[in-house]
Each structure stands twice: as structure tokens, then as C-alpha cells.
Amino acid sequence: MDLALALRAFVRTVERGSISAAARDLSVSQPAVSKHIRNLEGEVGARLLERSARLVRPTPLGQTLYEASRQGLATIDAALEGVRRDMGAVEGLLRVHAPTCIGAKQLHPLVLDFQELHPGVTVDLALENRTVDLVYENFDLALRLGRPETPGLIIRQIGVVRRILVATPALLARIGPIDSLAQLADVPVVSTLSMAPLDTLTLYRGGEASEALVRPILRSNNPDVVVRTLIEGRAVGPIQRLLVPDELGDGRLVRILPDYELRASDAFFAYPSVRFMRPVVRAFTEFAIARLRRVDGIDTGEAQAEGDAALKAVS
After folding, report:
1. Fewer CB within 10 Å of terminal CB in the chain, N or C?
2. Half-sphere exposure (Cβ direction) of 222: Cα atoms closer than 13 Å
3. What angle is formed at CA 281 by the lines to CA 278 and CA 282, rounded to 5 degrees?
4. What is the DSSP letter of 107?
């Protein structure tokens, strides 16, 4: 029996709660995973997993073995990859999760540039607007908007993502200038799906919050749809500044009510562990944070120092 392979099959099955899911993650057949687990149970002389029609979960002895094996395997992986790094190689599979709004526009080109520096790195870049369980879904790190609340996650702040109101000059020429919050109720608005058909926008000026009634004509969970609607002059709307820096720079979009902004979102990288962070993850993190902090629309300041210090303290 290959003990390392058996332990990897067992650990992934516990994390995924499914032998078939573990097999997919490990790129082996389901019978192979089952065989590894049977051999491991025979080796320790105890039942390690409880199986039902819908779920696989560890027995008390299995949970003890999982906790010890998971950290041990992570240490081995980090050590092996560390040797490769010391030999000048940063390589391996890197699984990254991010929201679509920042992922396609900012993270995708960054990933390509990272691979130019490290051709041995394969990246799984999952872009979707949901919160993932990093361990269960086998991600190395996730970019999150808003401070992660999941216990046990290590987080590192990137910066603050600003949101502003914009429109095209042509639309403003047609509907007239917008000089007050009350006027937003009478103009077409494009927004995200989180906003109801008739709702309010909370806008801030100098730390003071104000409510503005709006009537969205289009709501979408796709940031490209929102941006195209704005650029085509179909509506005014709130947008993350980092999604439209070029359009603001060349005048295709202009800010309206420039004294007001929507609530900004803190951007973080989240990891399931730092102590066992593989070198490819560490290298990508340093590369990505340096690049993202230069993006127009992501503000950085003293708050980022706390996250950097925390990361170093546990490294």
C-alpha cells in the first residue's frame, strides 16, 4: 500500500464528503479511492468512514486521523514545493476563487502575467458571485469583497474598492444635469440584482448617509452587462470605479453627484492556512497584492499594514 496516496484519498474524501468528488479532485477513478480507503482501514485496523446514500463522514477515529494527516500532508507538499522554489521553480496547480466583478477585469490579466514569470504554474480561476468553502471546494485562496466571517480563515487586506455614480455625457445632455439626490427617482438606473425594482440607494458625503429613491430599468448579476448599459447611455448607475477607469479617463463616462459615493467594500485575500501555504500560493499572493493595490479604484492605506503584519507573524 502507498500510504501517502491512501492518506490523500482519505483526507480529500473527508473534506468533500464524497468518494466520487474526491476522485474527481485527485484525477483518479472512484474505485481507486475506495480501494485506498479500504487499504488504509485495514492498515489501522479500524473503520474510518461512515457511509450513507448521500454522505460520507469520518468516524471519531477517522476524524482524529484526518486532523493529523491533513496538516502532515500540507507540510510535506509545502516542503517539496519549497525545494523546487529554492531551485528557482514556482510551479504546480493554483486554485483561485473571486467575484466576477473584479475577477474578469483585474484578476484574469494578472494571472496571465504571473504565468509569464512562472510557466510551470497552472491556474484554476473560478469567477462567480458566491462565497465558497475553501477547504471543502479545494481552493488555495479566494478574493473576497467584505471581511470574511468564516472561523479559522487567514485574511490579508488588499484595499478598499470604491463605488461611484456615473453616466454618459450624451445621456446627461438628453435628460438634463443631475444636481440632487431627488432627481435620481426620475431617471433610468441600471443596478445589480441585489436591488429591488423600486428601492433606495444609500449614498455618503463626508461620512453622512443619505437615501435616494431610484427606479432601476435593468438589474443584472453580470458586471459586463451593467458596464455596457452605462457606456451605451441607456441609464445612470452605481459602479465599482475599478471596472471603468478607462471610460472615466477618456470621458465616455462621467461622475454624477461627485460629492457622493456608495459604501465602499474592503477587499481581502482569504486562505485556509498560512502555516502550510505552498510556495506557489505565497508567490502569487505577493505578486497579486502588489498589482491590485495599484489599480485605479482600489484605495490602500494604513489598514493594509495590519493584514501584512498578521501574515508575517504566522509565516
Report:
1. C
2. 5
3. 85
4. I
